Amino acid sequence: MEIAIAADHGGFQLKEKIRAHLIESGYTVKDFGCYSLESVDFPEYAAKVGHFVATENSLGVLCCGTGIGMSMAANKIKGVRAAVVSDAFSAMMTRRHNNSNVLCLGERVLGDSLALLLLDTWLAAEFEGGRHMTRIAKLAELEEREEDK
Ligand code: RB5
């Protein structure tokens, strides 16, 4: 599977570590930038990963200082279910119950080891379907309704 990644300057260093970790784990990585510590605006990078994930039915990882701005921006893209997490239980549950397709991590919040553990936990967890499928469908309906306004 190809995993899309991106970061702003606040998450750049973590994104670099994540890219190396994913490649080492056997994933193909599509890196949408940024490519240095120069200040950039996170919504642009969240949109790139969000569009890729939604159209390719893939997974994405976004890093910024807190992970919060990236999650806010990514969730504006139709078809994206982005979750910012900083604990392993949430990382697991947001896949099992929310079928999240974008993981957002905060470089200024997490140590590298914890960030990679959260990533591995998220990737290893599987959507449970069933009653959660109904809720995911309702999220999509909500998205449609808001778009029509
Ligand atoms: C950039 O300074 C910082 O605001 C950004 O990386 C992120 O944390 C926003 O949510």
* Tally of individual helices: 6
Helix and strand run: EHEHEHEHEHH
**Strands, count:** 5
The tally of domains stands at 1
* CATH fold naming: Ribose 5-phosphate Isomerase B, Chain: A
Oligomer: single chain
Rounded to an integer in angstroms, the radius of gyration calculated over CA atoms is 14 Å
The CATH fourth-level homologous superfamily: Sugar-phosphate isomerase, RpiB/LacA/LacB
Identify the strand order in the major beta sheet.
Answer: 2-1-3-5-4
Annotated CATH architecture: 3-Layer(aba) Sandwich
Q: Percentage of helical residues?
A: 40-55%
Please tell me about this protein's structure.
- It is a single chain.
- With 149 residues, this protein is of the alpha/beta class.
- It has a single domain, classed as Ribose 5-phosphate Isomerase B, Chain: A.
- The chain is 50% helix and 16% strand.
- It has a five-stranded parallel β-sheet, sandwiched between helices.
- It is globular.
- The protein starts with a strand and ends with a helix.
- The mean pLDDT is 97.
- The site of D-ribose has 9 residues, from helix 3.
- It holds the Pfam family LacAB_rpiB.
- Its EC number is 5.3.1.6.
- InterPro entries: RpiB, RpiB_LacA_LacB, RpiB_LacA_LacB_sf.
- One of its GO terms (molecular function) is ribose-5-phosphate isomerase activity.
